[in-house]
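Bumping my old thread because nobody answered last time. Still need a sequence for this structure:
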């Protein structure tokens, strides 16, 4: 199954999620990421964080949802709507869920405080992705309603 992690800029959260998911996912599950208005570059702190975690960073780039290599089966939006950020709506026949995460690209303060914002976003996404991958994926592939319920629950449980 193809999972799309979607946000507006596709420079931080969706890239972190894509790389982490692909690093942990079983065979047959693949993540991609995109933005409705991509920035055109991956934030250097995202790449540095992934490298520190031992997650390969080759081939990840900021891209538009108009340029997806595959049609997604699942779309996970990761923007933080509560922060006044508008989440893009993917217009396709897919399972949709929302896992809001604050955008570390907007963090301010010292280098340590900004790095902490990136680390926090990564930890939230990784926890949710691990919970996703712990689901009975073989069973859920054929039960989209149950898969959506489980994905929504994961987004609610791990703020």
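Sorry it took so long. Here it is:
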């Amino acid at each position: 199954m193809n999972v799309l992690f979607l946000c507006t800029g596709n420079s931080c959260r969706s890239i972190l999620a894509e790389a982490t998911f692909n690093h942990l996912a079983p065979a047959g599950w693949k993540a991609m990421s995109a933005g409705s208005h991509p920035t055109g570059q991956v934030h250097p702190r995202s790449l540095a964080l992934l490298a520190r975690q031992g997650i390969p960073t080759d081939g990840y780039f900021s891209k538009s949802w108009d340029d997806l290599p595959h049609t997604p089966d699942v779309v996970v939006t990761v923007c933080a709507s509560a922060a006044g950020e508008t989440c893009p709506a993917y217009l396709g026949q897919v399972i949709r869920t929302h896992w809001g995460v604050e955008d570390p690209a907007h963090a301010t303060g010292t280098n340590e405080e900004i790095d902490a914002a990136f680390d926090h976003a990564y930890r939230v996404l990784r926890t949710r992705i691990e919970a996703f991958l712990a689901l009975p994926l073989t069973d859920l592939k054929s039960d989209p309603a149950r898969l959506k319920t489980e994905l929504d629950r994961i987004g609610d449980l791990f703020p």
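Helices lie at 13-24, 44-52, 111-133, 137-140, 144-157. Let me know if any region looks off to you.
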